Amino acid sequence: RIHVFLKNELRTNYHERMVSPIDKTFCFNKVKNFCSFNPENEKKIFLIGDSHMEHISENFLKKIKDRNVNYISMNRANCIYLPNFSRINKKTKKEDENCTIQSQFLIKKNILKNKNSIVILGGLFYDYFLNKDFKWSYQNKSNLNVMEGFINGINELLLNDVNVFLVYPIPAVGWHVPRRLMNE
User: pTM for this structure?
Assistant: First the structure.
């Protein structure tokens, strides 16, 4: 009953829509060699967050592609901007390779070398700050909690002449919308 265009659109994974213009790999979940669009432009906009930010990443690129800005996408699953933190699986106690202290440092380094850039941060903050049942924990060597680490990371950017915008979490409906639409 669903039009073939809509059916095909709903079956495409959101994280497989943006591809690096350089190495033709998917932009989502990169820990280095982040996707950079219009790199010839000096003014930079970084979009950093989890899968919720990845959902808006492609449309954001469409909105700014004709402007004189370099757009860098740095979105990773279950990983918001938390310098000096790594993500740990609560069950296995193993560090996730997509969200390590080193990968967080690389993001911070890329941003700080570009004064007066714009950083747009977002994610499902509830899971990181309040959800005790979240399957991941975040650890650092300074005994900071996640909220303190997040605030410190933002303050460091602001103190280094970076413009920071926070995107409040995108509301979740509580089910997988494409599957529900397709009755799967």
Answer: 0.86
* 171 three-state secondary structure: coil
Q: Residue 19: which region, alpha, beta or left (left: phi > 0; alpha: psi -120 to 50)?
A: beta
Cα torsion through 110, 53, 24, 8, rounded to 10: 180
pLDDT, mean of residues 76-83: 94
For the segment 125-146, the average pLDDT, to the nearest whole number, is: 86
**Which residues are CB-contacts of 42 (< 8 A; sequence separation ≥ 6)?**
70
Strand, coil or helix: 162: coil
In this structure, what DSSP letter does residue 179 have? H
Q: What is the DSSP letter of 13?
A: -
Both structure tokens of 128: 């990181």
* Cβ atoms of 86 and 106 closer than 8 Å: no
Mean pLDDT of 51-62: 92
pLDDT confidence of residue 42: 93
Cβ density class 81-113: b for 16+ within 10 Å, e for less? bbbbbbbbeeeeeeebeebbbebbebbbebbee
In DSSP terms, 71 is beta-bridged to 37, 45
Integer CA distances (angstroms), 170 to 42, 58, 148, 158, in order: 30, 15, 22, 24
